[in-house]
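Module 6 notes. Inverse folding takes a fixed backbone as the condition and produces residue identities as the prediction. Think of it as a translation problem where the source language is geometry and the target language is the twenty amino acids. Below is one complete input and output pair. Work through it position by position during the lab.
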């Protein structure tokens, strides 16, 4: 890959221009760009150091022959890469997946590239305008999956959206932004179609064992999504638990004596009682009430009412997303329970893939619930809306207003010295109220 002396400077200028992009490739792995790599950056171009190291690792893993054979293979691949791309403009780099087509025949003959994986990779070409990119992604996922994971030999490369984009970039100017935007969506589509498994944040090619687990999961998911009433019940329970979790940190005090007041959470269509020693917090949501009805109830209650009115807004999009996530979590749990203890590597990967679905669904549920709570409207009796950054802030403000309404004559006896007087009374003083300090 000797360069003409008069071409080294233009190459260096281009590489300097895109140094940031080149430097981010495979970050947090042992194949990332190192200071010593800069010395061969120009001479190796258009093969980037990260890709050269990636190819070396792949060949070392899949080629069990002598080191000299591996070197000859690598030199042959480098030569073919240069020959096939010699007409490209400056700024073009050889993609990491280039090696796949050069060794796939040998991999199939050796049995390292299983027929099921080969078919998954090749069938991506039939998937529309992005078919070629999908095939490149699938082939790269296979190569990464072949890298060793044993302690000491693991270089930390995983088939994540970022790492895949790092290795697929060809045009340093145009590709990075486009690929980093497009690849996550393609991976998700390939996952939903059953061609990939997601284990943690890493994608793997689907196995027969994984496909069996996936079929069970899909069947269970369809079954659960048809049970709208069950999903609604879980949704209400989940929303209620999240609200109670937020309210655990609610502290309502009254007056300069900071007397603690208790609250009572009430849900449903029936208005709460107001003749108790607790502040009623009446919570309704968009699935069982309209916002205008909650506002009307607050206004009709009047400015003497100690009730706090809370409305949790929602819409069809939130409902669909939340129900999908709830059904997914339950389907994943049912799949895991049905399979019991697993021992084979394929079954373990399949189990981890379903566990990843469950974790993602749980995160989606929490995200949807959090949006609902953050957008809640809190009103005092009479219709005045409470302010505050968080729902807890808004409820606290309204509850303190409600406390003054519930204990209307409290200010007549309110005094900062009451806690001290109480302590002295417990200690046996006859007239603890005569000195407050």
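Target side of the pair, the amino acids:
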């Amino acid at each position: 890959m000797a360069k003409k002396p008069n071409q080294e400077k233009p190459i260096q200028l281009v590489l300097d221009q895109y140094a940031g992009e080149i430097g981010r490739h495979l970050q947090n792995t042992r194949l990332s760009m190192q200071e010593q790599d800069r010395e061969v950056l120009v001479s190796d171009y258009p093969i980037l150091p990260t890709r050269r190291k990636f190819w070396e690792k792949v060949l070392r893993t899949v080629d069990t022959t002598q080191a000299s054979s591996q070197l000859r293979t690598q030199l042959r691949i480098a030569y073919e890469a240069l020959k096939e791309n010699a007409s490209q403009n400056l700024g073009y780099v050889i993609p990491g997946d280039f090696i796949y087509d050069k060794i796939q025949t040998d991999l199939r003959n050796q049995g390292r590239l299983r027929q099921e994986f080969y078919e998954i990779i090749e069938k991506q070409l039939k998937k529309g305008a992005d078919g070629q990119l999908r095939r490149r992604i699938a082939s790269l996922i296979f190569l990464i999956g072949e890298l060793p994971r044993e302690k000491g030999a693991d270089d930390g490369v995983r088939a994540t959206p970022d790492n895949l984009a790092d290795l697929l970039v060809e045009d340093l100017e145009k590709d990075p932004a486009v690929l980093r935007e497009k690849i996550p969506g393609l991976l998700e589509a390939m996952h939903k179609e059953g061609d990939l498994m997601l284990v943690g944040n890493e994608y793997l090619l689907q196995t027969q064992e994984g496909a069996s687990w996936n079929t069970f999961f899909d069947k269970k998911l369809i079954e659960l999504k048809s049970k709208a009433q069950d999903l609604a019940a879980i949704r209400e329970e989940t929303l209620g638990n999240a609200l109670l979790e937020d309210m655990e940190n609610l502290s309502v005090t009254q007056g300069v004596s900071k007397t603690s007041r208790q609250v009572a959470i009430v849900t449903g269509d029936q208005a709460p009682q107001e003749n108790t020693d607790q502040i009623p917090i009446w919570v309704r949501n968009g699935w069982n009430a309209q916002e205008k009805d909650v506002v009307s109830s607050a206004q009709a209650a009047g400015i003497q009412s100690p009730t706090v009115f809370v409305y949790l807004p929602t819409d069809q999009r939130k409902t669909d997303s939340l129900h999908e996530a709830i059904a997914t979590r339950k389907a994943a749990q049912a799949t895991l329970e049905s399979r019991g203890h697993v021992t084979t590597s394929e079954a373990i990967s399949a189990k981890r893939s379903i566990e990843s679905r469950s974790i993602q669904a749980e995160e989606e549920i929490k995200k949807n619930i959090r949006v609902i709570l953050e957008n809640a409207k809190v009103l005092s009796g009479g219709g005045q809306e409470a302010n505050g950054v968080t729902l807890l802030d808004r409820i606290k403000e309204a509850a303190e207003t409600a406390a003054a309404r519930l204990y209307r004559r409290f200010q007549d006896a309110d005094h900062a010295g009451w806690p001290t007087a109480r302590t002295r009374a417990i200690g046996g003083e006859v007239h603890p109220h005569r000195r407050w300090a």
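Reference fact for the lab report: The mean pLDDT is 89.
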